[in-house]
Write a structure and sequence with these properties.
The chain has 370 residues and is of the alpha+beta class. It has 4 helices and 21 strands. The N terminus is likely disordered.
Length: 370
């Protein structure tokens, strides 16, 4: 009895292990290009001032909403206001002088006209010569020209100095005063506050970074090797690293006309169909882009292919009861299935990675379920 039991145990010990296997199948596959992207806002503006100065007030902080035209940073404007006041005084002075010249010219014209009328009356009675009349007419004409010149000093848009020069200086002073107030150009959100009250700033220095309201897009930089697979209008599924359980759809809307030679990448942009509210500028995203497909392809589950990310993919197959390595050539790679272009026949059974079977082991193929 012990001999029989021992023999049975020995046979069981020598019996090959049973492994589950999978076979290839025919199905339609969709190639997916997976890239890392980031959220790009419609516009990112660094607000600054073209004049140097000292920051007096910063009216917003990071995350604040701003409206187009609203004041966000105020520089110290005391010197600029004093310059405006001085320029205004010079305008008043110049206009007052011009008004005095006008009044004097009007009086001289009136006197010249009266003299001309009197001389003409005397000439009509034969008491004066024609030459005296002509001289009086010339004086009246000169007085009228002087009056026109005096009035031109205060006419709007007149190039005559000194009133025009004083007015131009006033406009320049007011323009410099306006530059001390930095306003938002469009509705948006403050992304970065780069200065504080008391900071000395230079012309062109960024004071705030503001992102403009509008539809965001996704920007990514896949390898140039994928250029032949990228098609405008291709659909994509996007998920944020911070919210991996959620996904949303996008459409490929732009492929850069040039390749970055230093990186070997090409810029692409995707428009978002219905962007979720949690998106933030520069947020990291995972983007899966439809990059072509094939009908009736021979496929294997992606998780049975070993070395899938290398140049030499292979599978473990069962041949005459032993596990062997079989190199394969793959085509389209989908999310769950991989097209096998060559390397296995339909009747070959493939050992999944999860099975406890090494190359060279003797195994028995278990019956498929169902």
């Amino acid at each position: 009895m012990l001999v029989v039991l021992g023999g049975v145990a020995y046979l069981l010990f020598l019996r090959p292990a049973e492994v589950a296997t999978v076979g290839s199948e025919i199905r339609d596959v969709q190639r997916t290009l997976v890239v890392v992207g980031r959220v790009r806002p419609p516009s990112r503006a660094n607000l600054g001032s073209p004049v140097a100065g000292v920051v007096r007030r910063v009216l917003v902080r990071e995350g604040d909403r701003v409206s187009g035209g609203s004041l966000v940073v105020q520089l110290d404007d005391r010197e600029a206001r004093a310059a405006v006041a001085e320029a205004e005084a010079r305008v008043v002075e110049a206009e007052t002088g011009a008004q005095a010249e006008i009044a004097q010219a009007e009086r001289e014209l009136q006197q010249a006209q009266r003299d001309l009328d009197r001389i003409r009356m005397v000439f009509a009675e034969g008491g004066l010569t024609q030459q005296r009349v002509e001289q009086a007419e010339q004086r009246a004409s000169d007085a009228a020209a002087s009056l026109l010149a005096a009035r031109a000093q205060i006419d709007a848009g007149s190039p005559v100095a000194p009133v025009a020069a004083a007015r131009a200086a006033l406009e320049a002073a007011r323009a410099r005063l306006a530059l001390t107030a930095v306003s938002a150009l469009h509705d948006g959100t403050v992304l970065a506050r780069l200065v504080e009250p008391g900071d000395a700033v230079q012309p062109g220095q960024a004071l705030l970074t503001v992102v403009t309201d509008g539809p965001s897009e996704v920007v990514a930089f896949p390898s140039e090797d994928n250029l032949g697979r990228l098609r405008l209008g291709a659909k994509a599924v996007v998920s944020a690293d911070a919210y991996p359980e959620d996904s949303f759809r996008a459409t490929l809307s732009f492929v850069a006309p040039a390749v970055d030679p230093s990186q070997g990448t090409v810029e692409i942009r995707l428009s978002l169909d219905e962007p979720p509210p949690y998106l933030r500028p520069d947020m990291t995203l995972s983007v899966s882009i439809e990059a072509g497909g094939k009908e009736g392809a021979t496929v294997l589950p992606a998780d049975v292919v070993r070395g899938l990310g290398t140049d030499e993919p292979w599978v473990a197959v069962v041949v005459e009861g032993r596990v062997e390595r079989r190199p394969i050539r793959i085509g389209i790679r989908g999310d769950d299935f991989v097209e096998v272009v060559s390397g296995i026949d339909p009747e070959i059974r493939v050992v999944p990675v999860a099975e406890d079977a090494d190359l060279g082991d003797r195994v028995r193929v278990s019956a498929p379920p169902g």
